[in-house]
Amino acid sequence: MSNTYVSYSTHPINKFGAFTLIAAVITMAIPFTLIPAPQSNTAQAANLFVDISATPSSGPAPLNNVDLTATVSGTAAGPITYKFDCTADGIYDQSITTESQTFTAADLCNYSNPGSYTAKVQVERENLTFEGTTAILALSSADLFVDLSADPSSGPAPLNNVDLTAIVSGTATGNVTYKFDCTSDGSFEKVITTPSTTFTAADLCGYSSPGSFTATVQVERGGLAFQGTTAILVTNPPTVTVSLVADPSSGVEPLNGVDLTANVSGTATGPIIYKFDCTSDGTFDNTTTTNSNPFTATDLCNYSVAGIFTAKVEIIRGGISAQSTTQVQVTEAAKTLHVSISAEPSSGHAPLTDVDLKATVSGTATGLITYKFDCAADGSPELQITTSNTSFTATDLCDYEQTGVFTTRISVERGGLMITGSGNVVVGEPATLALAVSANPSFGQGSLNGVDITAFVSGSAIGPITYAFDCTADGVFEQIVELNTTSFTAVDLCSYSSPAVYTIKAGAKRGGAKVIGTTNVIVSP
Asked: What is each CA distance from 443 to 302, 449, 452, 468, in whole angstroms?
């Protein structure tokens, strides 16, 4: 069973204080249970319930295309008949039978006048009936408001990339058209239509000079228009200047470890970016961000050659930059020139031939170098050559036939300077060198292959030994090798295909001494 309750309330409807009486009908279903006579296997009675909701449930009149959604519950089964009544006046605006326990009557109800309305649904299932109601409020009239803000709202000129943000409120519905005017001059910098009630016109406004400016937004929605404003204060731009000092500011080349000190002044505030350039070539040798003022870039600059150099600093503070320069004077140092000479070999037995002389130049003098090599320091250079190389070797230049200590001399000229250097070559008594040669095997019959040749060296000569082997003494050496050992065997070196007496020749060279030795190989028929 169900009970119906009626409640009344009064609502003002005009400025003279007249009231209207609105009755709200609330239908309440009171479930009850029939208690049958006691018996076994008695079935419980089915029940049926419904909930109803409206979308939207409120809005300014005319409030049209309101959806009614009914959701059925309970133990009753079978198809469901939904009957929707937009104003609970007993006239159903839509009836439908379906298996679904939830049904939406889309865009069903329209409320042209302001007021409080009750929508009703009646559902029928398995011979049961149930009703549900929901309230719908159609407001008397729509309204529209807007708040406007700027970010940033103040700052030094030029104040650029200012965002304008508009927030719309009120009961008006539908898309919103925003019209932004940075200076309230009637010219809109941006116009956009969107469903969003908040919109930011990013980086919209720029103010190049100081002053107080008023930005405006005009919004339009549901046939209504509203305007909002906000103030933007642009102050005088901050100032910044910088001075630069070098320490030391002058010196002799190379002038290294020069400090650059920058001192910043002006009204700008905040951290300072220092950029130092030792030679104003556009490449910064040091970049530092700090709150320190003044700031010194210690041991920053090195000047390897003479000249007047311009050092530069660029600073950035509060978005403002400034530059300053200073000069560093580097004078030319007295030029120097040095030379050393060495001989290879620097000693040996007479005759000592094909001696190399090597000269190495250093110092601050620049330009081409003229070398004059003199093997015996007798004033008659054996070689003169001009080159840019700071080291030069005169190969196989000097021969010494006699014993003694010989002075070698080098004279070099560069950049208007001249210097000499000297060294010694010691030539001892002629070295002795003896050579014994043997063959293995030294005889054979028919043909003789894979003959080893062994050389034994003795004497006073020193140094590496060059061995040369000639299997038939025809002047063509089948093997040449340089070793530090006084004996060497050329394994399987010689082959002889026909009978004869063959002469094998071997040569040895050591410390300027040379010797030839021979041996025979006999091949019989």
From this structure: 80, 10, 12, 22
CATH number of the domain within which 117 lies? 2.60.40.3880
Domain of residue 323, CATH code: 2.60.40.10
3-state secondary structure 82-134: EEEECCCCCCCCEEEEECCCEEEEEEEEEECCCEEEEEEEEEEECCEEEEEEE
What DSSP letter does each residue of 425-452 carry, written as one string?
EEEESPPP-EEEEEEES-EEES-EEEEE
SS3 category, 302: strand
Tell me which residue range forms the domain holding 504.
434-524
Separation CA 300–CA 260 (nearest Å): 7
Instruction: Please say whether the beta carbons of 121 and 146 come within 8 A.
Output: no
Write down which residue in 139, 167, 182 finishes a domain: 139
- Residue 464, both tokens: 């590496």
Cα first-last separation, the chain: 148
CB 76 within 8 A of CB 128: yes
Q: Which of 331, 346, 372 is the last residue of a domain?
A: 331
Whether 200 maps to a domain, the answer reads yes
- Predicted confidence (pLDDT) per residue in 341-380, tens digit: 999 999 888 888 999 999 999 998 999 999 999 999 999 9
| 431 confidence band (pLDDT: 50, 70, 90) | confident
223: pLDDT confidence band, cut at 50, 70 and 90?
Answer: confident
CATH of the domain at 504: 2.60.40.1930
pTM above 0.70, yes or no: no
**What is the CB neighbour count within 10 angstroms for residue 214?**
14
In a domain, 352, yes or no: yes
Alpha helices, H only, 354-492: none
For 307, the token pair is 């000249």
State whether 149 and 209 are in the same domain. Answer: yes
- Asked if 123 and 95 touch (Cβ cutoff 8 Å), the reply is no
Q: Which alpha helices (DSSP H) does 144-234 contain, by range?
A: none
Pull the structure tokens for residue 450: 């894979």
Buried b (16+ CB within 10 A) or exposed e, 127-154: ebebbbbbebbbeeebebebebebeeee
How big is the CA angle at 157 (ends 151 and 160), to the nearest 5 degrees? Answer: 45
414 and 438 belong to one structural domain: no
One domain for residues 50 and 119: yes
What's the number of domains the chain is made of? 5
Other C-beta atoms closer than 10 Å to the C-beta of 89 total 11
The reported pLDDT for the residue numbered 42 is: 52
Both tokens assigned to 64: 């049209």
Residues 6+ apart with CB under 8 A from 297: 259, 260, 261, 274, 276, 285, 286, 288
Is 33 within 8 Å of 21 (Cβ atoms)? no
